[in-house]
Amino acid sequence: QVQFVESGGGLVHHGGSLTLSCATSETRFSQYHVGWYRKAPGKMREVVASILNDGRTTYADSVTGRFTISRDNAQNTMTLQMNSLKPEDTAVYYCNLRPPVDRYWGQGTQVTVSS
Questions:
Q1: Number of separate helices (H) and strands (E) present in the chain
Q2: Fewer Cβ in 10 A, N or C end of the chain?
Q3: Coil, strand or helix: which one is 44?
Q4: What is the pLDDT along the chain (115 residues), one digit of tens a residue?
């Protein structure tokens, strides 16, 4: 019943920016830790960024200083602002709880960064 729906992906040149959005039907969204994940071709899914229910954030070393995670508890949404994008950031990006719940995975949104 709970869904996480990602949007905002696209094709950008290296150095460009994108903002990803995530909307969830989880009514107790504000109580949970949440995060953004990505899966690149041939690689395992990894945590990109997380934001706790108190607003504290954590980032993967590969994106620190370039990505910003935020949440709007009133709208049950979260965003990932991505700047200075690199070809290595190319992946399908997902949102979920942190730690993730398997049945909550959506289809993700594709981010492709050209070189």
A1: 0, 10
A2: N
A3: coil
A4: 899 999 999 999 999 999 999 999 999 999 999 999 999 999 999 999 999 999 999 999 999 999 999 999 999 999 999 999 999 999 999 999 999 999 999 999 999 999 9
CA-CA distance, 89 to 63, in Å (whole number)? 9
Contacts of 8 (CB under 8 A, 6+ apart): 18, 19, 20, 21, 109
Amino acid at 42: G
Give the Cα separation of 42 and 35 in Å (integer). 21
57-59 sheet: strands from edge to edge: 10-13, 109-114, 91-97, 34-39, 46-51, 57-59
